[in-house]
Write a structure and sequence with these properties.
Strand order of the largest sheet: 1-3-8
Order of helices and strands: EEHEHEEHEEEHHH
Structural class: alpha+beta
Strand content: 15-25%
Number of strands: 8
Radius of gyration: 18 Å
Length: 281
């Protein structure tokens, strides 16, 4: 498919002012998160639409309503944070491999301290307009400080499809478009306009709910190796072992909860979503 050049996007985890690859942040769970340091400034360039276009907010109401006939999906997403609780609205998050790649690629090189992995249980029913286009997930928008930064117009796409969850497999549009060596790495976008309570209906403004599902200190993942944990090679096998160490840390602390609730495959299709047009604005 025809795709525009790769663009770095705010990463799933670090809020306002951050400008790194899509950050991964998550809220507290039982027991509550203790006080943590202030947000860490990231070093990557933020994503902006091409040709100097101004990013638009994600607050435009969808143009139609009605429930969808799609399936209801239940899965975990994760965020890496060392800041306050920002909830799971107007943010990015990731699968566990996607979040671990973010920690290794973005936070460890900057010696960020006090990192926690926070887990959420998400229930998602895709909106009908997106299902009719042949997808469960839309484009993965980048959020920074609660503002949707694109790629392109968030407002137009939410108006067209409803407040969908976005996803991208790491290595595919929009970022990062290079090999990460983290199999199963996925990033998500979760717009506030789709968050509701009770059972998601697939109505254009009621596509997902979430509940906190635990958190662990990154030090409990690293164990006796400390930051040397991240230097143990960068092959898919090496990184799968790091992901398993994180999963084991959650299991030790939350043995009464499922180890994993697997998400449906990230099926965002650029050509279908943008109707075969190369300009994604």
């Amino acid at each position: 498919p025809t795709q525009p050049p790769s663009q770095e996007t705010p990463a799933p985890g670090f809020p306002s002012g951050a400008t790194t690859a899509p950050p991964l942040v998550v809220p507290p769970v039982a027991p509550p998160l203790p006080p943590v340091p202030q947000p860490v400034e990231s070093t990557a360039e933020p994503t902006t639409p091409p040709d100097g276009a101004t990013p638009r907010p994600s607050s435009a109401p969808p143009s139609t309503s009605g429930t969808s006939d799609g399936n209801l999906y239940t899965f975990y997403v994760y965020r890496a944070q060392n800041t306050d609780d920002y909830g799971l609205v107007d943010v990015n998050a990731g699968s566990l491999p996607g979040t671990m790649w973010f920690v290794q690629h973005d936070l460890v090189p900057r010696a960020v301290q006090g990192i926690k992995l926070v887990r959420y249980k998400v229930r998602y029913q895709p909106p009908q307009a997106l299902l009719d286009a042949g997808m469960k997930f839309g484009v993965r928008f980048a959020y920074n400080g609660g503002t949707c930064k694109g790629p392109g117009s968030c407002e137009d796409r939410y108006e067209e499809y409803g407040y969908f969850l976005g996803c991208n497999n790491l290595g595919e549009f929009p970022y990062p478009m290079f090999e990460t060596h983290y199999p199963g790495g996925v990033w998500y976008s979760l717009p506030q306009g789709g968050r509701c309570f009770g059972d998601p209906t697939g109505e254009l403004d009621c596509t997902y709910t979430f509940t906190a599902a635990g958190w662990v200190d990154i030090a409990d993942v690293e164990g006796d190796l400390g930051r040397g944990f991240w230097e143990a090679g960068n092959t898919p096998e090496d990184n799968a072992a790091k992901v398993q160490a994180a999963r084991d840390a959650f299991r030790r602390k939350y043995h009464f909860m499922p180890d994993e609730l697997a998400p449906p495959p990230c099926d965002f299709d650029y050509d279908r979503f943008y109707h075969g047009q190369p300009d994604f604005r």
